[in-house]
Design a protein that fits this description.
- The protein contains eight helices and two strands, in the order H-E-H-H-E-H-H-H-H-H.
- By secondary structure, the chain is mostly helical.
- It has two domains: 4-150, no CATH class; 156-232.
- The chain has a two-stranded parallel sheet.
- The longest helix is centred in the last third of the chain and has 48 residues, at 153-200.
- The protein is elongated.
Length: 234
């Protein structure tokens, strides 16, 4: 690992990322890089939008370091936190490919939405670009020679059960909100009906106020209702 004062994740956000890694690692002696990648995505370190593609760059470097260190030494000699409980670190093919893609993009200075990557700008400002490129070469080489881990049948079953449980839980919450906004929508329709009746009986002011209120209710409840309903089937 390059000296800590030169590392791109020696920041408050980098410390938060390390803490998340420690929490993930503490749950199992076998540390799966896929779990760390999923953690990165869930907490917001790995952003799917293309305009923020380079936000994950420093964290991808950290994950690559973590994996290659353990492969080389069977422990984490340069890791500033206690990770002695980890007995195995494995990487699956999908995670390996993603990390390699990110490292390649950094190394080749591939632009993001027409702009230069933030990490490349930082290295050039500190005249560390060539040093980091050589370091990236070693990480890429180590990752490429790593043999992807294949899940056991038990692990596949357990993962699918977990995903199914999470999907059911998420859809249950979505369904609750769909029903809630559906009720609000029906209330809006009822208010609209009353406003029409008020206007018919020449109660103009009350009818206009009720009509305005019903329009606002229908617009926002309808928008939220269909948004949640659409999410239910994703």
């Amino acid at each position: 690992m390059i000296e800590l004062e030169k590392h791109p994740v020696e920041t408050e956000v980098g410390d938060q990322f390390r803490e998340c890694i420690i929490m993930t690692a503490s749950k199992n002696q076998k540390l799966k890089m896929r779990d760390l990648l999923e953690m990165s995505r869930e907490i917001g370190f790995l952003i799917e939008e293309s305009q923020h593609a380079d936000y994950f760059d420093p964290f991808a470097i950290m994950l690559a370091e973590l994996f290659t260190e353990y492969q080389d030494y069977g422990r984490f000699p340069n890791w500033i936190y206690n990770m002695d409980d980890v007995k195995e670190v494995v990487i699956d093919e999908k995670t390996k490919d993603l990390l390699l893609q990110v490292l390649d993009d950094i190394y080749n200075e591939n632009r993001v939405e027409g702009r230069e990557r933030n990490i490349c700008i930082q290295w050039k400002k500190t005249e560390m670009n060539e040093i980091w490129k050589k370091y990236l070469e070693s990480l890429i080489y180590s990752l490429k020679k790593a043999v992807p881990y294949k899940e056991t049948e038990e692990e596949i079953i357990e993962r699918k059960k977990k995903e199914e449980k999470e999907n059911k839980s998420g859809k249950g919450i979505i369904l609750f909100f769909v029903l809630m906004f559906g009720i609000i929508f029906i209330m809006g329709v009822y208010i609209l009906y009353n406003s029409v009746m008020l206007l018919r009986t020449e109660k103009i002011l009350q009818g206009i106020v009720a009509l305005l209120f019903s329009a606002i209710t229908l617009f926002f409840s309808g928008k939220l209702f269909f948004g949640f309903f659409k999410s239910l089937f994703k």
